[in-house]
Amino acid sequence: MIIPKPSVCIIGGGNAAQTLAALLPHQGYVTRMFAPYMDQADQINASLLEQDGYMHAEFAPHNQPNGLIKGKPMLVSKNPADVIPKSDVLMMPLPSFTYTSTLTDIKPYLHEGQTLCVTPGQGGFDWIAEDILGPELLGKITIVGLMPMPFNCRISEFGKMVQVQELKKHYSIGVIPAAAFDKSKLLIEDMFGGSVLPAGKGTFLECSMFPINAIIHPSRLFTLLSSWEEGKELDENPLFYEDFTSEGAACMDETNKELIEIGKSLTAQGIPVDIPHIFDWLACYVYGEPKESTLQRFFQTSDAYKGFRCPLIPGPSGKGFVPDFTNRYFTEDIPCGLCLYKGLADIAQVETPKIDEIIMYCQKYMEKEYVVDGRLIGKDVGETSAPQKFGIQTINDLQKLYYP
Q1: Whole-prediction pTM value?
Q2: Taking every pair of C-alpha atoms in the chain, what is the biggest distance, in angstroms?
Q3: CA–CA separation, 372 and 26 (whole Å)
Q4: N or C: which terminal CB in the chain sees fewer CB atoms within 10 Å?
């Protein structure tokens, strides 16, 4: 007996969303898209009309599948009422700062039995979901945090073609409720192939703490900008990964070790979490990097990270470059990543000098105030995804959430 695949609604219209719009219909999923931002739905619909309704994605040769993949979404709409109620699975490949507005948009159309899969699933998604959806509605659906984002990809023609450098084959997930883990694991394996393991012990707290973007991006940029001063320009815009420096790798290692210490302290105080080192998890587990390699070598040589430049923009002279502090590597990874870690560190009473140093450097140029006198008590904490924003102030608060 053939079990029908669940219907899927992709939420968003960016790189990963358009890749999903090609891959999932190709794999037999009835697929809709909710593209609420600006006029993305209209643009995608107009582009699809020129290709008989198909979204195209070109997967690099080392992937499986590889080559040109075509998929035809059933419907693309900016109205959630058109697409959310009819879908069994909602895929949210979105940055953390969009969670609140997106959940607010779709809340009236959610119903019992749906699965909401967010990727990469970080930034305190479960705290935001409970705040927006409320415990009653949240208790009727399954939420899945999928790490890492399945694709490294870039749109080459909006609404028509995406270039996919990497389709990952190894994932970690957190699931609420925990009893839905096996079903969620099978769903991810069917969609993307490969292996699926729990994120640490499988909690959403571990999804928020796993070392991905907030460990990678700020460390790389903090060390890159060590020679930059306001009013000056950098001579070139280096490749983010191929030009990865030993200083960047050392900063990443130091930041990650502080995160691991936060996890150890939480565990000792009755909140068991298992937080890995980024080399062990991302490099070795996700990408199969040899254990004898290094972080710097991994990022410099991995096929998955080819061709991405640093978030620099031309300076006033037109000859050099300056940082773009409005780029999401700052606007997402600081308030929704490092500040979340710092908030947990304050609760766990763990010192984090390197995390503090990076936040304080970035907040100056972002014109924000997060860390003051070594604690996350600045005036802009309410704009972050730190636990304190959601009234989570103590170990007891975390125990009530995750181990009632």
Answers
A1: 0.93
A2: 68
A3: 51
A4: N
